[in-house]
Amino acid sequence: MIQELKQNYGQHFEKALINEILQVGTFKEIPAGYKLIDIGDYITVIPLLVSGAIKILREDRDSDELLLYYLEKGDTCSMTMSCCMGNTKSEIRAIAEMDTKLIMVPIQKMEIWTAKYKSWRNFVFESYHSRLNELMHTLDSVAFDAMDARLVNYLKGKVRISEDNVIRNTHQEIAYDLHSSRVVISRLLKKLEQMGHIELHRNYLKVLDL
After folding, report:
1. Partners of 206 in the β-ladder
2. pLDDT on residue 207
3. 198-200 and 100-106: which strand pairing?
4. Do 91 and 149 fall into the same domain?
5. Are residues 106 and 198 in the same domain?
6. Predicted TM-score (pTM) above 0.90
């Protein structure tokens, strides 16, 4: 845990803070598909990612999901921090996109470190800024982009995060993430295949040129 923490957060945190994280943090490995946080949960820890990726989803009134953004190594989730500070229930769902390693920090340290360490304050503010930009991008995409453009951006994001051009998600799972229907997604994927951008297989698709 020491090496991974320094490698991913050494550029953010001073040595004293790194040492405190090592003292109170819990190293955790979670498999792909694991639900780390669910809507309505009280947040008791702050996740610091050292490898892998976590997708953050929000649910509408009909219980349909929308992908908001991904967390990658070196990230934390500012929305969980907001819940920590207000002692409110989570409004997001966090699911491991792939096998992921993270360090769980008790929420009691949030306020203490914000007052004690400038590097932690900067990290928190930068996290808020990054997540806000990603949320604005998602909002713009939903409001202004056609579904085919959203699907292409979604596939590009999956390839970038996994560093693999093979995407092992069903059409229904993709539809959930994009807040669409399986029929629409299947039709658009077939169109992308006909254009030579992807290959469709029984249980996966392969990105060729997007």
Report:
1. 166, 199
2. 95
3. unpaired
4. no
5. no
6. no
Per-residue pLDDT at 133: 86
Give me the number of domains the chain comprises: 2
Chunked into runs of 10 residues, the chain (210 residues) has average pLDDT values of 80 89 93 91 87 89 81 82 67 91 89 90 88 84 85 93 91 90 93 94 90
177 and 91 in one domain? Answer: no
d(CA 54, CA 80): 13
Residues 6+ apart with CB under 8 A from 1: 22, 25, 27, 50, 103
d(CA 109, CA 93): 23
- Do 192 and 178 lie in a common domain? yes
Same domain, residue pair 9 and 87: yes
- Beta pairing partners, 71: 54
Q: In angstroms, rounded to a whole number, what is the distance separating the alpha carbons of residues 87 and 99?
A: 29
**Token couple for 147:** 């579904």
Do 128 and 41 share a structural domain?
yes
| Domain encompassing residue 92 | 2-143
Q: CA 187 → CA 115, 121, 148, 193, distances in Å?
A: 53, 46, 10, 10
Give the E-state strand segments of 3-139 in sequence order.
26-30, 35-37, 45-51, 53-59, 65-72, 93-96, 100-106
